[in-house]
Amino acid sequence: MKILGQIKQLQTSAKRLAFLGLAGLMLVSAAGCGSTAPGDKTATTQTAPAQQTTSAAKTMIQVIGSTSVEPLMTALSDRYSAQNPNVSLQIQAPGSSAGIKAANDGSAQIGMSSRELKGDELGWGLTPTTIAYDGIAVVVHPSNPVKNLTMEQVNQIFSGKITNWKEVGGSDKEILLVIREAGSGTRDAFEEIVKLFEEKDGKKVSTVAEDKAIIADSTNAITENVAGKENGIGYVSLGSLNLQRTNALQLNGVDCTADNVKNKTYSLSRPFLLLTKGTPSAEVQAVLDYILGADGQAMVAEKKFITVN
């Protein structure tokens, strides 16, 4: 009997344990139903609210073109962006022809050119805005005794007809030409004004003696080449003229200065153009208006270029 009683007690304890286990499982299941299962479309989830941008995004304006216009445009851009921090001008200077094409095909909102439009470009529907005028200085090494040339002598030197400095009153040294690459606005303007071209099949072809020339890809490269070669001669933008490294020749007895460009006694001069296509955006128009305004034109004068007003 005693053994039978112990067996009944054990059975009762087992039932209690089973009951407690089942209750525990039910509680765990209930808790699980309150969470969100992956893929459960009826479940409600909470996410953090998206953060709001507290400042407006910058407007980027692509400006591409002339290496001669680039230093002035960079200075204008820096001053404009300081006053308008939400606008950034991204400036590249592969040359005038590239800038004109970029304005035409839309890869730039503004093209920079240091020459007038020509040929097919005139039919592309571009609007040129003149922001400054510039002289083109003919430069030689500081040790060169020659101080003045006529326009005809400049033509004959760069076309290869005059090849020695003694022919124009200098030392008995061969003349080394330093010129810009094809597509440069400075080169195009220089050759147009000095008449270094001839007509072939209805097109203007350069008559510059390239086989006797060093071809430089920037205004600074012209300066460095002439400064390093006593018999060199080249041409640079007046605004980029470095009189510590080179000498600027008189042309027909007239110095290359801003005043002489403005009064038109110095004949080697050209406009600086910004080119747009179609109706400019409000942001682009604001940049153009700023450059043509008092602050922008003050910067033009500060950089030794000639103002438009």
Question: What is the secondary structure topology, with strand pairs?
Answer:
Layout: H1 2-33, E1 59-65, H2 70-83, E2 87-92, H3 96-105, E3 110-113, E4 126-140, E5 148-149, H4 151-158, E6 176-180, H5 185-194, E7 197-200, E8 203-206, E9 213-216, H6 219-227, E10 232-237, E11 247-248, E12 250-251, H7 258-262, E13 269-277, H8 282-292, H9 294-302
Parallel strand pairs: 1-2, 1-3, 5-12, 6-9, 6-10
Antiparallel strand pairs: 3-13, 4-10, 4-11, 4-13, 7-8
CATH class of the largest domain: Alpha Beta
Strand count:
13
Query: CATH homologous superfamily of the largest domain - what is it?
Result: Periplasmic binding protein-like II
Overall, the morphology is globular
The overall number of domains is 2
CATH topology of the largest domain: D-Maltodextrin-Binding Protein, domain 2
Could you explain the architecture of this structure?
The structure is a single chain. The chain has 309 residues and is of the alpha/beta class. The chain has two domains: 59-133 and 271-302, D-Maltodextrin-Binding Protein, domain 2 (3-Layer(aba) Sandwich); 135-270, Periplasmic binding protein-like II (D-Maltodextrin-Binding Protein, domain 2). Helix content is 35%, strand content 23%. It contains nine helices and 13 strands. It has helices at residues 2-33, 70-83, 96-105, 151-158, 185-194, 219-227, 258-262, 282-292, 294-302, and strands at residues 59-65, 87-92, 110-113, 126-140, 148-149, 176-180, 197-200, 203-206, 213-216, 232-237, 247-248, 250-251, 269-277. Strands 1, 2, 3, 4, 6, 9, 10, 11 and 13 form a nine-stranded mixed β-sheet that branches. It has a two-stranded parallel sheet with strand order 5-12. The chain has a two-stranded antiparallel sheet with strand order 7-8. The N and C termini lie far apart (127 Å). Mean pLDDT is 85; it is low at 1-8 and 10-55.
